[in-house]
Amino acid sequence: MSKNDTTNDPTDTTDSAGLALDRRGFMKTGAAGAVAAGLGLSFGLSSLVEADDYRDALVEHTGEWRASTCAGCTSWCAAQILVDDETGRAIRTRGNEHSQVHGRNDCVRQDMAIQQLYDPDRLKQPMRRTNPEKGKDVDPEFEPISWEEAIEEIADKIMELRENEETHKAMVTRGRYTYLRPILYSHFPQIIGTPNNISHSAICAEAEKAGPMFTEGEWSYRQYDVTETRYVICWGADPISTNRQVSHYSHEFGDLLDRAEVAVVEPRLSSTASKADEWLPVEPGYDGAIASAMAHVILTEGLWNEEFVGEFEDGDNRFVEGEEVDPDTFDESENSHGVVQWWNLELNDKTPEWAEEESGVPAEQIERVARRFAQAGPNAISWLGGGPCMQIRGTYTAMAVHALNGLVGSVGNEGGTLYAPDDGTASLPGPDEFTDEIAEEGLAYPEEHGTGDKIDQRGSLELPALKGGESGGGVVTNNAADGILEEDPMEIELLISYWNNYAFSNPESQRWEDALEKIPFHVTIETHPSETAWFADILLPATHHQFERWGQLRSTANGIRSINLHQPVLADDPDDPEDVLDNGRLWDVKTDETEIVYLIAEELADRGFDNLFEYCEQYEDPETGLAPSEEYDGGSFRDRELRAQAFSRNAAKLRTQPMWDPDVEAPPGDEFDGWEEFREAGVWNSDHWEYRHRWPSEGGEFDTATGRFEFFSETLRVGPDTDVDPDDDIDLEFDVDDPDGLEGHAERHDTDVDDVLETCNYLARTDGERHAYVPHYEEPYDMGDDGDYPFKFVDYKDRLNREGRSANATWLHEFKDVNPGDEPWEDVAKLNPRDAAELGIEDGDEIRISSPAGEIEVTAKLWEGVKPGTVAKTWGQGHWAYGRVASEEFGEEEHGGSNNRLIGAEYDRLSGSSVFYGDVCVDVEKL
Amino acid sequence: MTEHHSLDDEMRTEVEQLQLDENGDDDVDLNMVIDLQSCTGCGACNIGCAQENNLQEGVAFSSRIVETDGQFPNVSYEYTPTLCNQCEDAPCASGCPTSALYEGEGGITMHDPDQCIGCKYCMINCPYDEIHLHKEDPHPRWDDDEAVIDEGTATPTELKAEVGVDGDAPAYYNPNREVGEHEHPTRFKGVVEKCTFCVHRLNKGELPRCVEECPCDARIFGDRNDPDSKVNEILGRYNPDVLKEEEGTEPKVKYVRDYNGGSYERGKGEPALGD
């Protein structure tokens, strides 16, 4: 039984037998109420409200459901918000009924959104730090200031950098975003003149994108065709709890269990594992061994999909344990490339028995799951989550897990693993014309100075970050702290951070406290105070994304891509900037991606630098043709705010114009007559994904170097844009001009690929036992030796987490036990009872968990869903400055402990992804 | 655009047609069936309920029992959603000295706070721990007038004033419970309270909030006396379980299929109503 705290104790005598007070003792708003409140009267004592003040209809019947979008996780569900006609308050939310991805179904996270909107601890107006000293234990002594003052200070700082021609010392960091993000995240830094725009993506799941990138040329997340599938293997993915499009997958899961089998590879009993047919409780970090063994079983038992992979010319299966196959005997399908090489270089000795030794999962179970998965193919899914691949050697595991989809032909196929149909949204007006010489110099600064391409040092020898196959193409979010501390490639003097909390959300987050302490001028834009805001010089209060602002996100599942609009739903007419400013938001808050950029632009123009302002003026209302300054031309700050809001609305209209403007071309999908019709619906649905359309045998092409699905990754070797003829014999001496990929990265640093791999902590080599260009298993790289740190730490995200922004919501704590093994209002670390007995730890004991990176003190929970030798803990607690509920004492003491104080700052360097899983070693002791 | 006719839509149509009588003089027998295979244990029901009914922290009309059994690696976890069972033979009502608890419309066990003296006999008599005593004035956390950052963040009382919510209520106060004569919108100290299948919603033709909020179609709700109701359809398909059957209370909240819907055998062939 959970110790959830809703148990009623009839023997408790507290306040028993109190008198039943007047049943209408509740008081509504009104003059009498204000007087009573002023006098401190207890509302229960007298009947201040007549019965006829009460309502005779539900809000559902008198209010209005208005469309917006939930960004409480990367499902990004289209939403509808019920707005009360009497008070204008948001009452509740649900999935948008017009969405063909999820309909009215949402997930529990969206239901929590109103506790964020109506959180008393939200920032309600701009503030300035008065204490020049910065530190975790230093009170910033914030004082309220006006928006005008705040924007002036920011503009002054930008002008100072421009006058000194040191714009490269500016930096923008982003966390969650909408697709209006180019304005603040890309265009603003370019016009100001800094290369330093750092996203959160590498602490999200970049390694998860590397698997499909280096097999089928897609640097993106998949959608999974669960309504048509017959077998699902989840690898560190928990689709009814976290991961993507939880609304759709939750709705389908009960039926999926009837139709298909589900296996879960996961070191702890996850929500999905608890309902699955098979749980494969893998030793953390050893997922790749299981994936290789499954591929071995599928090939030796002749269960691969011939149409996708090919067949032996004479029909005899030569995939025999321990034997090499002559490639000439295998007639490769035109859809894929290199299965024989994969077998010869990796798979031929990777038996289930071998994998059992490595992973702790029984050989018989590995064999059974592999066999049934392949027998269900091509209607079978190998579902890759972050767990197996956000590890130091994770890219290769990601490739191995995703390659199973290739073996059974489920790639882009019915009941398999799909991508999103075409999006069709428009590019926003760009910054190129407004980028002057000073800016160009700032942007080019890293070419001549220091390490890597930006402050995160991406592209350096140690950090290939091969997004899209390009050296330095991706972000290495967490390493930006080191860049700041080392002043390499530059010193940072101005940071604008928005919609993120890097001082909490990055592994070994202590480093960010040091980095932020060092930055002399830091502006943060957030809905809440946070551990990052604690170090800021200026705090700007942000609109809540679901209720108070314009934006656009998109969802992908059920075969559909949807385009989802955010709008300020609290205003009756969101198109009217005056209504939005007066009624559309709770406090004096503004939107990071648009309004704040616009206000800075005008302030810079006042100082003689009007490039950003001229850039903003491009954002004309596509219906009226009016630029912001033509719609409101007054000189007051209020007029500026109205222009900023018009700019914001125009940006949303421009971005989604193909969806709603019949005169602008869009991919096949919903059709609307105009903006207002689209705005009211709030969602555009594409047509269904066309199965197999990228298969070369169907006339398509994969975005890889060979145009095929690659079991031997030419794309990892030379990048996707270099054409390699798949019919050439695989010959690593074969040179290409100006390659991307690993060869490109090695060339850039005047070295060879093996040196890159060694530097980046991989075991693979171009001629090694573990081969650089095929999906393969590498044993985990432990952070901490097993003498001092004998346990593996299993981190996973809270189901109620809302991307780390809901820790101040009471419902998260009240219902925290929806995470299997957790307890309400506690932040427990879960140990297997057998381990706990050896350590003398009992349920509820206070324990210290330590790693080479740091330590936390939390409560022990003994739970059988944890693999012996591991400690499992839900991520999300340990806040000390996120509000009164999130912290034990705001600004002073954390509630529970943050996993990120234990997880060291390491990377899967090929993808740039931070490491959260598999490699984290800890010690546990009773306090 | 496609309009979806979901399971919720069909059940809502049934509810709209119910002829409920406040004194229980109706021929309606409201039941809820929870399909555990469809349930994912997400807690959306609980949060929806808390918001619909303005429950303060520590009180959950929609709640759960979670159980872990076995030893690693042979270990199971089950989540069982719970709520008042609206028992046919309700020991809370039969033991109530003031008849504050009684059988109301549709067979729902109703509670009249005017009659309640807070004696807690019902709490002792309820085998399911589903009666909640209000030990204090509701929502004390919303009485606070301290800000975590002076003048920079709001206070709970300031926020309530800003959004026009008064009284002992959270800033996200839901006025739905003001509708009808059944409920006190936020409740008060010294009386007990319990789930009523959201009777304020039923009377206006809407489903209980937990039913509507469930993203998994795991809650099937309707009239047992209507042979064509969805609730009869699922009861016709599966033999249900009830909690503590041995208590003889005849719960109207029933459970079908297993939370651990997976098995080592391929598909059990037990389709849900959504199929």
TrEMBL record, chain A:
It comes from the Archaea. Residues 63-121 form the 4Fe-4S Mo/W bis-MGD-type domain. PROSITE patterns: 4FE4S_MOW_BIS_MGD, TAT. The keyword 4Fe-4S applies. InterPro entries: Asp_de-COase-like_dom_sf (IPR009010), MoPterin_dinucl-bd_dom (IPR006657), Mopterin_OxRdtase (IPR006656), Mopterin_OxRdtase_4Fe-4S_dom (IPR006963), Prok_Mopterin_Oxidored (IPR050612), TAT_signal (IPR006311), TAT_signal_bac_arc (IPR019546). GO terms for molecular function: 4 iron, 4 sulfur cluster binding; metal ion binding; molybdopterin cofactor binding; oxidoreductase activity. The keyword Iron applies. Keywords: 4Fe-4S, Iron, Iron-sulfur, Metal-binding, Molybdenum, Oxidoreductase, Signal. Belongs to the prokaryotic molybdopterin-containing oxidoreductase family. This is Molybdopterin oxidoreductase.
UniProtKB/TrEMBL annotation, chain B:
GO terms for molecular function: 4 iron, 4 sulfur cluster binding; metal ion binding; oxidoreductase activity. Transmembrane segments: none annotated. Pfam families: Fer4_11. CDD domains: PsrB (cd10551). InterPro entries: 4Fe4S_Fe-S-bd, 4Fe4S_Fe_S_CS, ET_IronSulfur_Cluster-Binding. Keywords: 4Fe-4S, Iron, Iron-sulfur, Metal-binding. Residues 30-60, 75-106, 107-136 form the 4Fe-4S ferredoxin-type domain. This is Oxidoreductase iron-sulfur subunit.
